[in-house]
Structure formats: C-alpha cells, structure tokens
User: Fold these one by one.
Assistant:
Number 1:
Amino acid sequence: MLHLLVADGNERSGRATHESVCGKTSAETYAGVLQHLAPDAVCHLAAPADADAVLPRALTACDALVLTGSTLHVQDGGPAVTRQCDLVRAALAAGLPVFGSCWGVQVAATIAGGRAARNPRGPEYGLARAISRTPAGADHPLLAGRPPAWDAPAIHDDAVIDPPPGSTVLAGNDRLDVQAIEIRVGDGVFWGTQYHPELDLDEVAAMLRLSAAGVVEAGLCPDEAALHAYADALRDLHRDPEGRPDLAWRLGVTAEVLVPERRRREIGNFLDRLVRVRRRAA
C-alpha cells in the first residue's frame, strides 16, 4: 500500500473559491486521480498554507508528496508561501519523491535556488500548446509515452523563469522554457510540470471562468462573453468527448488532452517509475 501526502497549495479562501466552482478542492482532485492510477494508494490530504495546519501523517511514514496548484504567488512571500516551501524542503531532505504541477513546480524551483515570477512571454490559459522535450528530456521517465509534441491543460501567469542550479529542464514550448523539470535536493527527487495533467476539461472551464478578467486582459478573448462561450465548449466536450468531434476540432483538442490516461501520463509515470521504484529499493 502506498501512502501519499497530497498538499493543497491554496490558503483557506482559495480552497473555498475553488470548491465553489469545481465542486472539490485541488487536493481532492489530485487524490481522485492518484487513487484511480494507483488503487492501492491511500491519500492523506493536508493544507500547509494554513497557520494551524497539522500533517495527517508524518513525512517519514509517506511514500511521496504531491503539491497542487494555487492562486498564491511565490514572489509575494508571506507565511502561507513560506510554510509550503518548508514542507517541500523537508520532504526532499527526507528523501521523498515529490510531484507538483504549476504552483508545485514554482515552489520546488524556488527552494532549490531558482526563480519563479510572472512569465514575461505572457500567461497560458486553457491549454499549453506544442510542448516538446528538450534533449535532456528525450528519454526521461517522467515523459515516457508522450508523443514528439503535445498539448496539456494549463492556467498560469507565473512560471519558473530561472531553473535552479543542477536541475534538468525536460520540456518547454514557445511560451515557456520550463514546462517540465527534474530537481534533485540531497536524496529527494522532484518531478513536475508547469501544466496541469490532473485537470479534466470541466475543471479547466470552471477555472477559466474565475480568470475571465485576466484572459481578456491578456488579449486571448475579446470580452468575458467570449471567454464564457469558450468555457462552455470545453465543459460540453468533457461531458461527451466521443460524441462531440465538432467541439474537439473547433477547439483544437487532441487525444493527449481528451483521453484521461494520456492526459495524466506524467502522474502515472511518477507513481510507477519513481515512487514504486524507490519503495521497492527501500
């Protein structure tokens, strides 16, 4: 049995907002995906942004840590950020495998000496397009099974701008050099993606509605009505992926996004090729 600590990157208000539009918190989304991919896993949910947070299980009794996305900004600092940096630092120091998407990547890069900030090339809203491996990522197990280029759910303004010394950048695209990365700190290993392999399209649609003003400000939609129409189309495609090829064609959504097993490939690779391998070795 695997014991996985799932840390929600949001503080209380962010968790409440996310739950109000998605019907579950970011940590609950991840727990559902992890347990689908690893039926023998037990997920222990934590909220390390909170001052009164108590880990439901000791790090040393866990097989891995997973850190979700967040509405926080690493560069803003503050106790909610510091507490999460401390948790990831402690997990890596304990030799745990750690996975994170979006916020999780930014936290891991920061504690290892890199820099996360607003992406000067602009945000990615909805899908990150045409991601491809770097030479260093060509045979990396995190990306095993991905085609030469792929799209993935993504919603972010911030990103890893300067990867930490000694890290390995595994994938990027024309919007961002660091779409996937490996970071090693002592005996701990972090694998992560700036994009969101855990998100279904209905959750992407809900999160886009929350970010409507930002999407319009970035020039990606002419107005909020257009954004909501786009979100409606994503939601409808999620509800009937096989019966709406017209929506998949119009939105440019391929099987790498539509098929859950393919969309979640990095999470499955993390479990099978890092967590279980380390568990057997131990």
Note: The longest strand covers residues 124-133.
Number 2:
Amino acid sequence: MIKPKIFQVNGTEYTVRPAKVSDAPALAELRLQIDGETEHFDRVQGEGLIDEGEFKELILLDTSIPNHLFLVAEVEGNLVGFSRCEGSHLKRLKHQVEFGVGVIKEFWGLKIGQALLSQSILWAHHQGLVKMTLKVIETNKSAIYVYKKYEFEIEGILKKHKRLSDGHYYNTLIMSRFFS
C-alpha cells in the first residue's frame, strides 16, 4: 500500500496519497476542470462525466483489486491532481497496468504529475508488475520528456488518433516502462 508522501517544490507543499471515498465529490469537480484546461486528454469538458457516486465506486474498486491504484495530489486540503493505474483481471494481462494522470493548470510546473508517476512506478515495482503503459498525444512534449526520463519508451503510434480544436489530426504515442 502506498503511504502519503509530502513533496515541496518552489514553496508549495503537496501530498500524494491514495484516494479515499470521501474524495469523490472533489474528484468529480477536479476531472471536469482538468478536461477544460487542456487538449491533452481524449475528452472535451463535459464529455464522459463521472459523477460523485461513480467516483465512489471507482475508488472502492481500485482499493479492492491488487493491480489497481488510485492516487490524488492535495495542496492545503484541496485536490489538485490524480492518477490511476488500472490492471486487467485476465490472467494473460495481469502483469501490466495502464497509467493516466491529470493536474489542474494552476499547479503545472510543480512536478505534481511526476510525483504521482514516481509513486505509481514504486507501487508497480513492489506489486511485481512487468509493464506500465500510457498514452500521450504527440504535442505534449513536456510529458513525453518526463516519461522518457522515467524510462518509458515509445512502443507504438496511433496515427491521426485525435482531432483537436484546430481541426487537425494528431498522433498518440503508446509509451511503456518495463520492470524486468
């Protein structure tokens, strides 16, 4: 189990910890806000909403399955980011998880996404997982740089995978980190 960990960057202190059921209302608002602040995700703001009840179910599920992890980042009692690792129940796929992360724009540059990623990597290693995979749009150069720094490699490209507000199509990179 991941224990809460405190980080300090540029005078801001934040905690990365496992999500709790009581975080559900804040997570519903946080995800909606993040979706409206960037085009790096699959959704535009308001699409694919997850309400408070669904977040409660998700947190309960993630805390009961060994190859799932749901983390949040908190500044002064307010959630500012989250990440999830989701594994499969299928025997042939149990050795790997898919990672996703989001941080509100106001807190970009404080390495919150990196803290969520590093804690997830530690967890995956301790779980004995073999592979952690994520998807990132080709225009998100700063995220790609960070993922490479954490030993992720490009494993594949989904061509013309997303159409952004400029009307152009962009590729999505599939990146993976291998543990053994």
Note: The chain has a mean pLDDT of 94.
Number 3:
Amino acid sequence: MKDYAIGIDIGTTSAKVVLFDESGEVTAYHSKSYPLLAEEPGAAEQNPDEIYEAVVHSLKETVKKSGDKADRIGFLSFSTAMHTLIAVDDNGAPLTNSFTWADTRSEPFVMEAKENGLADDIYTCTGVPVHPMTPLFKLMWLKHESPDIFQKAAKFVGIKDYILFRWFGDWKTDYASAAATGLWNLTSLQWDEKLMNMANVTIEKLPEIKPATYYWESLSEEIGKGCGLGPEVKVVIGSTDGPLSNLGVGAISPGDVAVTIGTSGAIRTTTPEPILDPEGRTFCYPLTENHWVSGGPVNNGGLAFQWVHDLLEEKKNEKDSYEMLSKLAEKSPAGAEGLLFLPHLTGERAPLWDAQAKGSFIGLTLRHEKDDLLRAVLEGTILNLFDVYNLVKTQTAAEAEIKIFATGGFTQSAIWKQILADVFQKEVSIPENTESSCLGAVLLGRYAVGLTSQLHEVKEETKQYETIQPNKENREVYQELFRLYQALSQALKPNYKGLNEFQNKHKKESGQ
C-alpha cells in the first residue's frame, strides 16, 4: 500500500525533506543547509546548484532512513520559498545565482513605481505589495545592471522551477510561485501582458503556469535510482511555503490565523476568494483556485532575538544560551518598564513595506537593565506582527471567532509564546508537527492525487499538542503599549530614508 508520502521544502537557509505516514506523523527526516551570499550591499543570493544538490541529498538520506517504508511512498510534493529569480540559458544552465526575497538592490525601481503612480495598479493586478523582494523589480534591476546576461537569458525562473526542470526537462511553475513574481494576474490566473512589458520579458521567457495540484506521473529512472525510489512515485508541483504552512497547521477555514516566527515571520489567513488591502499593505496568494492566503511577512523575527543574543550574551557557544536569555527576560514585567523596541533591523516588509526602515529602542532610562532590553526585543517582534494582524483580521471572520495557530523556532521560548498570547489576547495553539510547510505539501499532494476529495478534509490530521492561554491582567498594558508602538513607528517613518543615506555615507570600513 502506497500510504506514505514525502514533503520537500526548499527554504531560504536549508532544504528539508520529511517522510509522513498516512496520519501525518513524521517517520523520517533530513535537511541540508546552504549559504546566503551577500558580496555587496543589498545582495542576498544563493547558488542554485548547491540548493539542487541539497534537495537531492536530503531526499536520498530521508529515503534511506525510512528503511522498509521506501516501497510504500506514493508521491513527493514540493514547498518553496517565495520571490526567487534565476536567469538560465537555452540549456537550462544558470546565468545568475538565485536572487532571494531578501535581495534589495532593485529598491530604486520600486521607488520609481511608487513615485509615478504605478504601485497601486501593480498591487491591484497581482496582490503582491510593491517591494524589492518581487522578481518584477529584480528583472528591471538585472536588465539595468547586467544587460548582457538579461539579453542572453532564455528563461527567468524560480528555484523550485529550476529543480523540477532538472528532474523532468520542462519549465513549469505553480500558481503561488507565479503570483509571487509580481508578473501574474490574480483574475486571469495567467502572466499579465502589461507587467511583462514593464519587465521587458515575453511569455516565452517564463515557465508555464500550473495549478498546485498538477503532478508528474513518475520519477525519471536516474532520480528514482539515485534516491532509492521506484519510477511509479508521483511528483506534485505543490505551492509556496506560506500557503502550505497554513494548510499544515490546519488554518484554512475562515477565522483561522497562522503566525510563524522563524528567522523572519509572517501572519496569514485563508479565504475562499482573493482579498486585497485598500492601501496595498497585505499580500494575497493562491493555494488553489478556491483557497486564497492573505497576510503579511515581516523581515525581523528570530533574527532580532539572535542579534540581541549575540550582543549581550558572552557565552555564545553554549547550547542553552538562548534559553538562559529567555529566562532572564521573564524577570522584566509586561511592557519592559516602558521600553519599546521597533524590530526593523533589516528594513521591513509588512506593515511598512520600507526596505530602508531601521530598528530602535525607545524609552531607555538609567533604570533599564539587561532583562528589560531582552523582553523589549521579544515584545517588539510580537507588536510588529500584531500590527499586521490588525490588517488581516478585517479580512476574515468576526473577532470572537478568530483562532491563532503558531509555528516556528520561537515556540521553543516559553515567554515568547506567552507574549504572543497576551498581546493578541487569544488562545494560541501550537501544532505537534513543526514542519508545517512540508506537512502542508503532503496534505495538498493527497488532495492532488485523489486520496481525499476536498482539501479541508485533511485539516483534522494536524494535531494540537499545546495551548497557551492569554493573561487577562496584561490586556490593558499591551493595549496601551501597542498604541505607543504604532504612533512611534509612524513618527519615525519619514526619517528612515535620511538615516539610511547617512549610514551609507558614514559607515565604517570592514574590519574596523
């Protein structure tokens, strides 16, 4: 019986491959990381061949760890990070690295679109906020900076498209990956001619768009033998990590809100039809034609905790140092003695959509101690997500019906989880399975190959193992603190451009 399935997640930092049984339990797992290349200001690239090798290696190792279950694997299904762009030649060989969502070198073209009034039209057409993460603007930048490469390119593709091309020899992309490029029309579900003209590309230079349920009937003999799988194993094209994470935690009904904090963070909800924000502050991507995921990504989640950890913790190599700092943060009261932290250390996506935004501590006094700084950082990341939540909750069910599902590395910190529950004043459910994108890919795959008739039927397979109750005593504290957070965030916003220019002009040389 082919009752096992594999989810493959091509993440920003690593490739993860997870084998699940029919009930959604993890039975084998392997991952392999790869570096992020930042050789010049604003750059955030990766080697596509390194990622390909990481995927194949992790798949091979997971199958090996599965033992006698390998013969029971019926299909593989993919998840991927959004907004990647690779230029390839006629043979499918990369002409560039993979430009990731974090690459901000196209910022001048974003500013131009905002200044000439095109930003609103782009958002309305695509559901993608206007930001340097978007391949639409990366294409403009590439044409300007490397016209020879731009001219030579036969295709412009994403990282998952590239891996599947090497497996099957044809260029295909899923709905959500296409949507994330900023070249896709959410009404027609096809590439948009006006946007392609803006990017100076033709439809021949883009992959063919397929629904997330599209699948190949069998693996090639080379890939199958190399990874220990039979040729009868199907391969589902899948979707992107955000929509699949919602599916993986069970947040696909009206009123379900998924919160993820890893290195970055996101907050998302699912609706039967696309919903856009009047001011273009939230994204809207398809999982299927009848399931649309809207919300907002933030740049600074666990990254902010890592920064303050490395800044304050002398024993950086101790495995439990993060836990020690979390315990220390518990000594500070809710509100961190009036110390606020704006967590925009690497610019910000939602809700500001400003690549030049800066982080800051506000309210520092002589009485503040290390525990207050730590708590302020943890609170600041949650207040930022709560700011996005206030946009998202208007797009879903009534406030009383909203349910919060949380995943990501932050769930290892007891105080961070409690702050989330207290700021949102909602019960927070933490799913048992932490690899929500991989599980979401498998659940989508089951629907794609006909093992379940409706996508929502698989929701019950995501088991909750922990719930965090909000502390009602902290309600007023965080309501007051959030009002200050919003006001100060807006007050500083007009100064980020000038501060960014000053920092670039007066930055210290490397090594000083």
Note: The first helix runs from residue 48 to 66.
